Hints:
Chain A has one domain (14-185): Glucose Oxidase, domain 1. By secondary structure, chain A is of the alpha/beta class. Chain A has helices spanning 14-23, 25-31, 66-72, 96-104, 119-124, 179-201, 206-209, 213-218; strands at residues 4-6, 43-44, 51-60, 80-85, 109-116, 129-134, 146-147, 151-153, 156-158, 163-167, 170-174, 222-224. The first copy, chain A, starts with a strand and ends in a 6-residue tail after the last strand. In chain A, the strands form two sheets. In chain A, strands 2, 3, 4, 5, 6, 7, 10 and 11 form an eight-stranded mixed sheet that branches. The model of chain A has no long low-confidence stretch (mean pLDDT 97). Chains in contact: A-B, A-C, A-E, A-F, B-C, B-D, B-F, C-D, C-E, D-E, D-F, E-F. The interface between A and F is medium-sized, with 17 and 17 residues. β12 of chain B pairs parallel with β1 (4-6) of chain C, so a sheet runs across the interface.
Amino acid sequence: MKTVVVRNIKRADSNAIGTFEALGVSTVHEALGRSGLMKTYLRPIWVGAQIAGPAVTVLAQPGDNWMIHVAVEQCQKGDVLVVGCTTDNTDGMFGELLGTSLQARGVKGLIIDAGCRDVKALHEMGFPVWSRAVSAKGTVKATVGAVNVPVVCAGVNVDPGDAVVADDDGVVVVPKKYCAETAAKAQKRFDDEDGKRKRLATGELGLDMYNMREPLKKAGLIYVDKPEDV
Amino acid sequence: MKTVVVRNIKRADSNAIGTFEALGVSTVHEALGRSGLMKTYLRPIWVGAQIAGPAVTVLAQPGDNWMIHVAVEQCQKGDVLVVGCTTDNTDGMFGELLGTSLQARGVKGLIIDAGCRDVKALHEMGFPVWSRAVSAKGTVKATVGAVNVPVVCAGVNVDPGDAVVADDDGVVVVPKKYCAETAAKAQKRFDDEDGKRKRLATGELGLDMYNMREPLKKAGLIYVDKPEDV
Amino acid sequence: MKTVVVRNIKRADSNAIGTFEALGVSTVHEALGRSGLMKTYLRPIWVGAQIAGPAVTVLAQPGDNWMIHVAVEQCQKGDVLVVGCTTDNTDGMFGELLGTSLQARGVKGLIIDAGCRDVKALHEMGFPVWSRAVSAKGTVKATVGAVNVPVVCAGVNVDPGDAVVADDDGVVVVPKKYCAETAAKAQKRFDDEDGKRKRLATGELGLDMYNMREPLKKAGLIYVDKPEDV
Amino acid sequence: MKTVVVRNIKRADSNAIGTFEALGVSTVHEALGRSGLMKTYLRPIWVGAQIAGPAVTVLAQPGDNWMIHVAVEQCQKGDVLVVGCTTDNTDGMFGELLGTSLQARGVKGLIIDAGCRDVKALHEMGFPVWSRAVSAKGTVKATVGAVNVPVVCAGVNVDPGDAVVADDDGVVVVPKKYCAETAAKAQKRFDDEDGKRKRLATGELGLDMYNMREPLKKAGLIYVDKPEDV
Amino acid sequence: MKTVVVRNIKRADSNAIGTFEALGVSTVHEALGRSGLMKTYLRPIWVGAQIAGPAVTVLAQPGDNWMIHVAVEQCQKGDVLVVGCTTDNTDGMFGELLGTSLQARGVKGLIIDAGCRDVKALHEMGFPVWSRAVSAKGTVKATVGAVNVPVVCAGVNVDPGDAVVADDDGVVVVPKKYCAETAAKAQKRFDDEDGKRKRLATGELGLDMYNMREPLKKAGLIYVDKPEDV
Amino acid sequence: MKTVVVRNIKRADSNAIGTFEALGVSTVHEALGRSGLMKTYLRPIWVGAQIAGPAVTVLAQPGDNWMIHVAVEQCQKGDVLVVGCTTDNTDGMFGELLGTSLQARGVKGLIIDAGCRDVKALHEMGFPVWSRAVSAKGTVKATVGAVNVPVVCAGVNVDPGDAVVADDDGVVVVPKKYCAETAAKAQKRFDDEDGKRKRLATGELGLDMYNMREPLKKAGLIYVDKPEDV
Lengths: 230, 230, 230, 230, 230, 230
């Protein structure tokens, strides 16, 4: 690991980011070919937030939040801070003071593959965090890491500037080069779904709407009338 | 595994189910002799729902929700859909569209030993789900499984038609043949508890109310006056 | 293990406890030198409570809540009940009836390294619980344990009478002999933080406020201008 | 749960069991349509054993091995003892003395969804155990459970008398009624594999041997020459 | 946490330790009233070692093994080093060089609630380690902790000088003041078991040897002849 | 995700790979600045193997090993196959037949963030595998993934051709561009360690050899003579 801060990164296209924020994680994840989703142990510390923005990335040491302090300076309005850790750790690397600092810079939220504390205060100030744990465990500032290098966070590789989308369903990362294409597909998917929802609400079966009966038969599914027939 | 759909199942007695829904999981679980409880990793995606109904069962492949689409057709008003998986999996096999479809048929809720997505939408439409994870991870429709065969879901064997009860405390399954007996015991337990609650609220000790002092002494418990006496 | 109940314990200083309850877990944990924090798998069954009190301790057998019934009698107004278990267990050892009984005695809350049930009722009556699981699984009353002996609960050793502080960030334990010193440090920390918060809110960087630039350089952190420079 | 011991159970066909023991878990599991496999947290306490036999089942309480003592009497030569637990538990419910007792009756091995101890002694006496943990934690004999009722063990429902197959790859359960059919399919699969192994050893590609190129193309897989082409 | 090294500790009685080392973990744990056992996630990095000795304790920071280097100086011939961590961590805090150093001082082995590396070399040199993980993750030497203060290691409180016993079944801790009494009970238990083992090997049932039939009946266990009778 | 196979990849320098294979994971991981280590849940299915080679990468669907069959064709003598999965999965995606096929092509071993089966046969044929589980669970061949695209495997991003090193301590990945520099550092570290080992074996303290006493004092560590002094 190089102990380095990269000052200038290329950020994902802001139009795509606007679309991602409006449509949310599940739709974007589908549009990206069902990839880029962070592991499900990452949960929002409070429900209801839905954000998207380019990633400023941090690689931190376990139990040490020094690099988060360093990263604040590299953030711009609209960014999302993404913190990976060199080893599994749940310490409370982030709390109210850092949240205040990020909010002052216009950062939209934090994704951290470690712990978070001061959850009540962060909720009250409306700063959303997705973390792997809630923990009051304080951290030291003793060992340097890196800012704006590629990091793996909750199972997904994040390059600085990639688009990060987060809501109650989780967190998905869209690589910069796929943003435009993914935004278009996501919008189309969203538009299509509304019609399907209406048909299903009337009682029409997905089996028929999606024309599944024939492929199911071909795949070997049979119907019997009673449990004893199995 | 037989790749089969069983069309006609025998459903648990509706009177018992009414009792179960009114009394909730903890009371029913006690009345069943403290068995039938699903593992605690299964959690409601939103709190406050309390349901009971006969199980329509699904055995699904990991990352594949084809059989849930098939199962919708087998559901009747008042049913609860129960999805087991052939291997541990947290993918988001269920979301808003399937929820809309099940709600249109009068299904009361979903128990799924895998992931769920669109949690905000499902909450807004009032469709309750108990799942092992929230995950936006989309699924394929490639491999068939089975509907209305016995499945193990979160550690409990569920036969089609068994009564399933779910609330904030978890999910319990009552085999069809024990429903009537269990409903009677659950009602009695509930009636008894109210008197106990009132006595405890006045400060009466459970030690006295349950006559525990003598058995505790016999089991070897002693009292000392100070830590140094241990 | 001695199967014993200790009747008279020394309780932590009530002034310190008042300070702890006002300041909350994260601040107290920092003031104690970042120790004494229970593992993060312990979560509140409902959010928003913040309590502190001297510990009455229980050592229970898995799936057996007999000792909790015994412990109720040893509790005084303002106490916090702390339950450790001889082996990992998530059964629902505690529910509405025991909560009613503890509340009648003025106990502030429960910390239990096992499961809890009746979460809706406990929320409605305002009795806070921090547990490792929610589980309707009922327990037997068959094997004795101990009350008011030292117990390890969620990774922390708790002596009877130690101060226990719990809120949405978790649970921290302050040994009796450190209470006064810790309360003073916690209050000072709290007073200091307010000034920092205000400065950060204006956009001042922690890097400057904490004078981190020089030590970071010394620790080997370098800045580069573009990703290609790494 | 009924606290009952069933004395006479129907055991799986011994010819099929002989085939299962010779072919091992992976082959049998395939022949059963890829079902019936216990969860992977169940591991052998020593490697190299391969057994099959009809199940004598036990439903035990956490931290309580009373029912295992009861079950010994119900075992016959060639049986495999299968222990499920009413709740997740890793206590050392089984050790050298019980192993000696089962071995004296000709029992082939133990499958236990809890802990095991005396692993060195059990290895030396050649008694195989598949358990979810190794733990010296002793257990009480205080609460009754059941013997020879259906139990869920490590995620699989086991009816008394079902064929249980265990080796270094894990544990699979074949319901009595599918034993003959499954044994035939397993033998055929085993015979087929030898030819395939030889062809692959010469360097022939599975892509060609299984005729996968066409279906892969149809499923959308494309080939490019350089990373930049993606 | 006080950042302190305590130089002179009182060590558990050496006669008791000799008995513990001869009898092993399961027997000692029983003699101690089934308490003091560390959690089962702690496993030996190689099988076959059986040790006992007084504990020299370390409280380490996550990802930082500085205090282990400090602790070496405090170790005497026959000691066992016990390392707790201020937060869950699996980094490889210990390897061949530290093992060489401890072995040079006559230390019998290491118990560490974190990771260990160089497992092949440690096996070859015959230095036993019980750890929660094997990990090559290197650690820093940046933040101080404490040596010879009470630590919680894998769920058990260890005071400096307490007797630690470890073998393939796990790790148990005997507080100094209970050593003599526990050694006597352990020896008695061991002597008793030999007779039981012989009787069980002849086929005598535990049900009869332990006179369990009457208490089982009283506890509500019934026998039926066929599954249909349940 | 693009469903694509990349045919021509650039492989890490073979001289560096030779050094990595000779020195092993812990030394290489240190030389890389303590990064690149896969998570510790990845374990060898048999102990004693030590390999290094350029990565051929696979991105597979849960419960589906189709892409591994595809990847075999892309492997050259000396390669290491690395399999990531689009979602957490422990199914036995790899067994004796695929092992035979890879061995026929000269592949050195497999790293798979999923399950493996036929462990006894793979051990006998000397084909090493590092997996997250052993599981007999068979897989389908229904959905395509990708070969030789970047994949995250057990928490580490692996680009095709990166050097992968694996032994009993785990698995580390060295990006192609850092291979030469890392090999040189690793060799130097290895040479240095031998002298240290000899000094430590004579009883010299690391405290003195590493000159730690002064920095420890500065970091706040104090020594006291008796526990009461704390």
